[in-house]
Amino acid sequence: MHTATRIEEVRNEVTELAQSTITAHELMEKMVRLLHDRMLKYNWVGFYMLEPGAKPPMLALGPFEGAMTPHTRIPLDQGICGAAASSGQTVVVDDVSKDPRYLACSLETKSEIVVPLFVHGTIVGELDIDSHFPAAFTPEHQSFVQHCAMLVGKKLESSPTKP
Ligand code: SME
After folding, report:
1. Radius of gyration of the chain (CA)
2. Ligand 1 within 6 A of CB of 66
3. 3-state DSSP call for residue 37?
4. What is the dihedral of CA 15, 19, 23, 27, to 10 degrees?
5. What are the φ/ψ torsions at residue 79 (nearest 5 degrees)?
6. What is the DSSP letter of 67?
7. Residue 163 has pLDDT above 90, yes or no
8. Distance in angstroms (rounded) separating the CA atoms of residues 123 and 12
9. Cα 2 to chain center, whole Å?
10. Residues in Cβ contact with 58 at an 8 Å cutoff, skipping those fewer than 6 apart
11. In the sheet that 73-75 helps form, which strands lie side by side, from edge to edge?
């Protein structure tokens, strides 16, 4: 199947999922499974959430699909994950072996995208996806993953006390 067609199909499925789930946690659990199952190059899909009140600020592993990672808590000054959370910007790395910030989760990982999650404009966490393929996260994928992160942010806004 053509990549653009698959992205379009899965975008619709994720949008429907956001409408049929009640809590953000349920949406996040189902979203990581859907993305991992349906997107062929998304080999590890997970959320990291900022720990409320942690000093120094810390990202904690949330719902994920794929192999267990050694990085269950990541400070904001470490990793691609820390870079995305501290800048509030999407980070795409086409070749993780060339990025000194990269914290290895799997030896097979070649490229990675991390998209921040916002609740009323404040960053609360991020959606992290690793691929076994180099440069998997083209602009079409970036826009799709940003859409996924936006849906979770909106769900967190509507159910803030029950993430
Ligand atoms: N690669 C990430 C760490 C998380 S694992 O990929 C699941 C990073 O460099 O921050």
Report:
1. 15
2. no
3. helix
4. -30
5. 75, 170
6. S
7. no
8. 25
9. 23
10. 50, 51, 73, 74, 75, 76
11. 73-75, 58-65, 44-50, 122-131, 111-119, 91-93
pTM above 0.90, yes or no: yes
In a 10 Å sphere around its CB, with 0-12 CB exposed, 13-18 middle and 19+ buried, how is residue 56 labelled?
A: exposed
DSSP assignment letter at 163: -
Task: Compute, in angstroms, the gap from residue 128 CA to the centroid of ligand 1.
Answer: 7
pLDDT at 161: 54
Q: Indicate if ligand 1 lies below 6 Å from the C-beta of 153.
A: no
Whether the link from the prior residue into 63 is cis, omega within 30° of 0, is no
Q: Is the CB of 45 under 6 A from ligand 1?
A: no
For residue 131, what are the β-bridge partners? Answer: 111
Over residues 117-130, the pLDDT tens digits come to 999 999 999 999 99
Q: Is 71 in the pocket of ligand 1 (CB under 6 A)?
A: yes
Dig out the tokens for 3 from the structure.
Answer: 């990549």
Residue 59 φ/ψ, nearest 5 degrees: -95, 135
Interval between CA 119 and ligand 1 midpoint (Å): 22
List of long-range contacts for 157-161, beta carbons under 8 Å, 24+ apart? 157/119, 157/120, 159/22, 159/23, 159/24, 160/119
